[in-house]
Design a protein that fits this description.
The protein is of the alpha/beta class. Helix content is 43%, strand content 17%. The strands form two sheets. Strands 2-1-3-4-5 form a five-stranded parallel beta sheet, sandwiched between helices. The chain has a four-stranded parallel beta sheet with strand order 7-6-8-9, with helices on both faces. Helix 8 links the parallel strand 6 and strand 7. Helix 4 packs across helix 5 and helix 9 packs parallel to helix 11. The longest helix is centred in the C-terminal third of the chain and has 15 residues.
Amino acid sequence: MIRRREFMTLLGGAAAAWPLAARAQRAPMALVGLLEGSHLDDRQLEAVRQGLKEAGYIEGRNLAIKYRSGDGHFDRLPGLAAALVADRVAVLLTFGPPAAMAAKAATATIPVVFATGADPIELGLVSSLNRPGGNITGVSFLVTTLASKRLELLRELVPGATVVGFLINPANPTSESQTRDAQAAAFALGLRLPIHGASSDADINAAFASFAQQRVAAVIVGTDQFFGARHDLLVGLATRCRQSIICARPSPPAGS
């Protein structure tokens, strides 16, 4: 696990290493593009500002940050990434696999720094961890590889559970690998694992209705910014259906 300070040091290093040609051509105020798949997280934004400040870039003085969010609609990200590239940002900072992949597809020259919970090699973002190659680098917290551990923990918390629901966002590029890991872990533990995809609030409601019909005792929610922004909805539905639930930490609303 890479600590937040180490990530911000990496970001500051990327800012300091921008090509000299880009430095000479850019406006007096450096422009950083920030791209997220879901809504903006003020804690992340503050960490970005602090990391850039430590590298000598202060927002409003010699730095401007242009924020763009897909608001959970990952199909919007390619257009948003292309718009940031057209704005000639000096560097693209992305959060989450969909945003990172959209940024990589949008430019082969502008530096891209990603923060993701997935395996960047499996996603095709980099060729290797020690030699990323190309114009993209970043950090991975590898949280999408914890499906088996989450199932084991859930089995300890709900020892009588034999049927566990798995909720995944099919629009997320990590959905297939997360599903494979969860299925393998469920098989090893002797659990039945009904799987339901959800990419909207209506899908989530339908998924929990289906889980209730299948007498699911507990639900594991795939790691995804879309679900992180709907923590209250997920917990509320699980409570109403009397199901235990394991999901990622909630994403605070912008402005909180």
